[in-house]
Amino acid sequence: MNVFLEKLLENDLLTEKDRYEIRQIFQVVDDKKKQNILNNFDKILSGIAQIKIEMREQQEILLGKAVSNIERALKQARNNGIKNATTSSIYDLKQII
Length: 97
Known about the structure:
The protein is an all-alpha fold.
C-alpha cells in the first residue's frame, strides 16, 4: 500500500468504487507510471470530475427523452382508447337503428 496514494484517495470527489479502481490500476503498473499517477493526481481528478459531469448531463438528456416517450405513448393510448370507444359506440348505434 502506498501511503501517498492513500492520502490522495481521501478526496471527497472520489467514490469508493473510484478509489478501488485506482488502487487496482496502481498495483499493476510499473514504478514510473506509479510516479506519474502520484505526480498528476490533480489532473486525474479533473478528468474524473469532467467525466462525471458529462455522464450526469447524458443521464438528464436520456431521462428527458424517456419521459417524453412515456408521455407520447400515454397520449396515443388515450387517443386510441377514445377512438376505439367512439367507433364502438357508433357501431352500437348503427345496430340499434
